[in-house]
Amino acid sequence: MSTNQPAQVAAGGGGAALDARQLRTVLIAVSIALMAVIASVSGLNVAQTHLAVEFGASQGTILWVINIYTLALAALLLPLGAIGDRLGRKPMLVAGLSVFGIANIAAGLAPTAEVMLAARAASGVGAAMVMPVTLAVITSTFPEEERGAAIGVWTGVAGGGGILGMFLSALLVDVADWRLLFVLPVVLVVVALAMTLKSVPDSRERSAHGFDSVGALVSVVAVAGLIFALQEGPERGWTAPETLVGLAAGLVAAVGFVAWEVRRRDASLLDVRLFRERGLAGGSITLLVVFGVQAGIAVVLFPFLQAVLGWPGLLSTLALMPMAVTMMAASGLAPKLAVRIGSRSTMAAGVALGGGGLALMALFVSVDGGYPAILPGMLAMGVGMGLSMTPSTEAITGSLPREKQGVASALNDVTREFGTALGVALLGALLSAGYRGAVDDRLGGIPPEAARTAREGIANAVEAAGGAGSYARNLIHAAQQSFVDGWQQAMWAGVAVMGALFVYVALRGPENAASTAAGDAGSTGPVTEPQPVAR
């Protein structure tokens, strides 16, 4: 089908034909909506100090203000994605954008930490209504031969949007006021809402089965419990009662969810039997690992740029942009490469490049080498993640039927959220352990009080150096070198994980769909139901 020929919109029994220009408008609308949601995940991190001073709140409260958004978003993705399939994707997108926009306005005007916390939770609810629908609109609207390119744009925004949002947020905090952080998502919401109302077609699916309310509720408990444990473990401790309760509740609910869904079979919220397919399993595992590594890298990079290189927050955020740009560019190129060499080969190449980037950073990072020493590794990571994310997302959405595209999109998003939480928890723990293991041998002669503070982390060491007198330079040098040791430990662990993923993708990744995509390139007519990429 040529780009000028219309595509039939799957809208539960029929729909208007969309030409190339209209399809581009739809893609822009859902991409802007997705950007608003993604930018809000990480944007508030740059204003932690400002929030604490403004509200007189503890660090624990501030972390909850940041994390409650992700917790609500992840927990509600599956049920709200399924509801969007049934009630209509356009109405769900409009309602979600409205809730999200109003909640961000409330957050920007919040007079207390409690109001801010409630507003952030409401933002997470709105985001959970928006995020799965954006991808479901693409898979249900775009013709098969153009769907891959559209998903490439979507994955690029999903992957690089967080870094771009963090940079813009840091810019606003540095040049203006932290409350203006909420202006950016509100502006994006207004634009996306106007374009959605005008251009995005509605699509919904009829189902012969009732909504799986039990499965929806159990999935909320499972995801919320596990995400809570991963968020709180590094802060409270992995053996803290709250962490253990969250982990236990999440695991029990997850087992219960699987058992219930197997029993419901075709009437289930998510047919877990489909994970036996290469497409769904391979795509989910790849996204889990890739997003985990990406999030873990951010945990390592920011302290390196700020505490080791001494860069301010805005410059540190700007330093991540090359990785975000290459990731977004590679996401757009991935569908074309998949047509030529196959989805599995493209995913494997991306994973190999990502692992190679981690190895480069581990080999060449040093205090004296500075930013140029890690830039090649960052660029390789960006390209690798972009190449692996798009075919992985296509594999997930292609494994579920059209009437379950909201669920497929939500599963894709839940996998990303789990990967992010796992990466932050695990690579962050490895970095901390490596730092503490290395710094003790370098604190000889340092005053005991300053040494105790320095063992807690590199930021604490920099703060302690102010009162260490003539020992300040030695203290900072010891902390910086120890951080590099911890960096290398975390990076090599990431290389091992990516190596294992490469072997898995090479052996059990989605079957190559290149020949099918190429063969369909000249077809016309209505959008067909997405077919499983592998069985």
Automatic annotation (TrEMBL):
Bilayer disposition of the protein: Multi-pass membrane protein
What subcellular locations does the record give? Cell membrane
> Where is the Major facilitator superfamily (MFS) profile domain positioned along the sequence?
26-511
| Ranges annotated as spanning the membrane | 26-47, 62-80, 92-111, 117-138, 150-172, 178-197, 209-231, 243-260, 280-305, 311-334, 346-367, 373-397, 418-438, 490-507
Main localization of the protein? membrane
Keywords, alphabetical: Membrane, Transmembrane, Transmembrane helix
Say which domain of life the source belongs to: Bacteria
UniProt entry tagged with the keyword Transmembrane helix: yes
Q: Where is the composition biased (Low complexity)?
A: 515-525
Q: Where is this region: Disordered?
A: 515-535
Stated name of the protein: MFS transporter
Which species?
A: Microbispora amethystogenes
